Amino acid sequence: MLASARVEKQKEFGKSTKRVAYQGKATLLALGKAFPSNVVSQENLVEDYLREIKCDDLSIKDKLQHLCKSTTVKTRYTVMSRETLQKYPELATEGSPTIKQRLEIANEAVVQMAYEASLVCIKEWGRTVEDITHLVYVSSSEFRLPGGDLYLSTQLGLRNEVQRVMLYFLGCYGGLSGLRVAKDIAENNPGSRVLLTTSETTVLGFRPPNKARPYDLVGAALFGDGAAALIIGADPRESESPFMELHCALQQFLPQTQGVIDGRLSEEGISFKLGRDLPQKIEDNVEEFCKKLVAKAGSGSLELNDLFWAVHPGGPAILSGLETKLKLKPEKLECSRRALMDYGNVSSNTIFYIMDKVRDELEKKGTEGEEWGLGLAFGPGITFEGFLMRSL
Fold it and tell me: Is the whole model's pTM more than 0.85, yes or no?
């Protein structure tokens, strides 16, 4: 839904019918998204991808076709394009030391997407950039000093006294980590308004397929690029339209699982390895984690199927396993599945694309919608990051 249309709908709906946030609790006041212009259709991916990297190995083609179907992804957006490969043909050459070229592309693209998402978000919020007091900047896709937080601040015209926090290389749970930091800032600095941005591109990890690295093909079939931006603040003004309260946050890591999600930066870019036991390790520990969060609601009668859910879809196997383990109704993870279908796995951004879809669903339900919900993401560590939220 467009920002202007959403604001008008909220006014029409009337504040009297909305829940009120608890005093001093951080709330989500606006949300924006942005994507690169290159759209990848999963239907055409195999032929286009293999042609661009000049690969004619039939076994690789068969494997990629299978992966494209099993990921459930339909469309993605990518910075990498035919024009990019024409300018930097070495990116498709095995063993080429291309980290300089990759960062040249990624550093600029990541800030540009964060800028565009921020503009959408700020427009929905309805206040000026001068009212932003803090910036939390999240990315696993760039590397430089000064970081993208400074470039974004300058591009947006933020005050030079804006307080900045930069979170690098957290992977898929980075969005919720950034949200946890933003919540703490908002609740401990009365009157503050925090701009949180997440922005990711697969440029650093783009590699030609190699049978010795089967996970590269998973990346080619699953991951996408994009950005998200949110405004977070406590005690909303009359002019603001909060839609979610951030009731409490929780993070934990699973001991002795550092190698299950392994990423290494080298002269060729960044390479990843995922352990086959990742979905099972998440399944084995997710129920206890969720129950800890739900207990914070202070209602002993609240069941998991009473909640709305926003779960980062590392892949369809993780969603299916979580659904089975927690005995969730199929519709509970529908927003996560639709986000995966529409955008792919976009690392730290994806949780906010899901939350945007959850927001739309809750608006349709009105006062009949679920009050409490959980936001979950999983990443290197293995790290669990979670939020208990209230719909407003």
Answer: yes
